[in-house]
Amino acid sequence: MVLAGAAAAAVLTGCSMEEAVCGGGEYPVLSVGGTGSACAPNGEEPPEGYTRYPEGKVPEHVGDEWDTYWQTHTVDENGKVVRVPEGG
């Protein structure tokens, strides 16, 4: 009953039950050459070793299309999107 009430409240208030990749005031960044990710403060460049996700391919919620995609893909040192070798 409590879960139903919480779900109804989320629908009525427009809140999402999905977990955001980053918190407010941050944007997601991708590890160059790997599948790691982090969050960087808005208005700042990504930390060393990280880059911005390609436009239109930015994960917004944990488990969404792009979050899943970037578990098997990365951006190389030249900015090219590449598939990560298995086990890598």
Helix vs. strand class: alpha+beta
Strand adjacency order, main sheet? 2-1-3
Number of helices: 2
Determine the mean pLDDT: 85
Broad shape: globular
The end-to-end span amounts to 44 Å
Number of extended strands? 5
> What count of domains describes the coordinates?
1
Query: Which series of helices and strands comes N to C?
Result: HEEEHEE
Largest sheet: 3 strands, antiparallel
Query: Percentage of helical residues?
Result: 10-25%
Describe the structure.
The protein is an alpha+beta fold and 88 residues long. The protein has one domain. Helices cover 19% and strands 23% of the residues. The chain has two helices and five strands. It has helices spanning 2-13, 65-69, and strands spanning 26-31, 37-41, 50-52, 73-75, 81-83. The strands form two sheets. It has a three-stranded antiparallel β-sheet with strand order 2-1-3, with no helix packed on it. A two-stranded antiparallel sheet has the order 4-5. The protein is globular. The N and C termini lie far apart (44 Å). This is Lipoprotein. InterPro entries: SCO0607-like.
What secondary-structure arrangement, pairings included, does this model have?
Elements: H1 2-13, E1 26-31, E2 37-41, E3 50-52, H2 65-69, E4 73-75, E5 81-83
Antiparallel strand pairs: 1-2, 1-3, 4-5
